[in-house]
Amino acid sequence: MENEGRDPLTGAYTRGILQARMEEELAQARRLGTHLSILMLDVDYFKSINDAFGHAAGDEALKGLAQRMRALTRKGDLLFRYGGDEFVLLMPGTGAHQVPHLCRRLLHSLETQPFENIQPPLTLGISGGTATFPTDGEDIETLFAVADKRHYIAKRQGRGRIITSDQPLPGKQHHITPPDRLIGHDEALKTAQSFLETLQAQQHAVLQVVGEKGMGEDVLLRNIERLARLQGYLTLQVHALPGMQHRAYGAILEAQVAGISAPPGEWEDITDLQGWTSLAREKRARGWLITVRNWNYLDTYSQALLERLFNHPTTLATGVVYTAHHLPVWKHRFPWNATPREEITLSPLTLLQTQAWLRQVLAWDPPAGFVQWLHHITT
After folding, report:
1. Is the whole model's pTM more than 0.85, yes or no?
2. Residues 228, 285 within the same domain
């Protein structure tokens, strides 16, 4: 099998021989009384990579992902290209208790090690689902159905994760996201994409995310950050917390820059705007996207620094996405004279949306009383 049925782009085996190989491994697992696990996955927002950087970059991303997966798995594991940006990993002898460890290693590698063979270097996200013989099923059809269902749940939960069990366990890979974080984000992401296009054209743009806490704003901001990175922006992620407004540069000092290990608090001088510009150019970035969670907890020094960075005369684009609660009007929410400006409003779920979430994600048609109770506690 070493030289047959190979995908010419990624070097993975082709879908055409997956069925036969799966039958062989399943028969051996039955005969020896061992386990067999499969992982189905695809690349998050793969179309955005092709749209932003071209199909050649998309091809390099797929090649890099296949190489990374082969490096992180055992010699006997088999990687198949299932179609497009979809892959299937066949893991003979791997039990359900071993699968989460592999998935964590893979996710950590992808989150922390950009693909340098793509310019600019990209950090890829994946979504996936797993199934194990005989724990989740004893035939090929059942195993693929279980893995496919979990793969779907991973995408509905916001992507960037692998679901390995129907029973939620602590940790990102197993977390069942509350329903209010799953419904209605498609339109929000379209607005976010429009905002990024405006940013590219106008060099400066502002996007506010409106909604009470619990409406899914954090999941949405993470998706916007991922979209921005795919399109070549450095992202500065500012989490402002109560009490930080009384500490000079409190939120900025602890902010995170994706792909850069040292936070701004460890830089030589965070107030040196030329340093921010130089860093973006060094990383071959289009510019900066700054996301601020809880704008109203920013101290005045941080606000002034971000305003100076936003208005700094440079060829690099600078955009701001922020959330703020309990602030009544635009001029109080955001003090800068920035245009164009866009807004995303996250609304509470309706009863029908709550019911739809339970059906789609949990594969369960609940009684009306339960739907009403869940709707009440999540809105």
Report:
1. no
2. yes
| 241 neighbors 369 (Cβ within 8 angstroms) | no
In a domain? residue 174: no
Angle (deg, nearest 10), helices 140-156 and 351-362: 140
Range in 40-44, 158-162, 288-292 with the lowest mean pLDDT: 158-162
Domain-embedded: residue 372:
no
CATH code of residue 284: 3.40.50.300
**Strands 233-239 vs 86-92: parallel, antiparallel or unpaired:** unpaired
Q: What are phi and psi of 172, to 5 degrees?
A: -60, -35
Q: How many Å apart are CA 375 and CA 348, to the nearest integer?
A: 9
Percent with pLDDT over 70 in the chain: 80
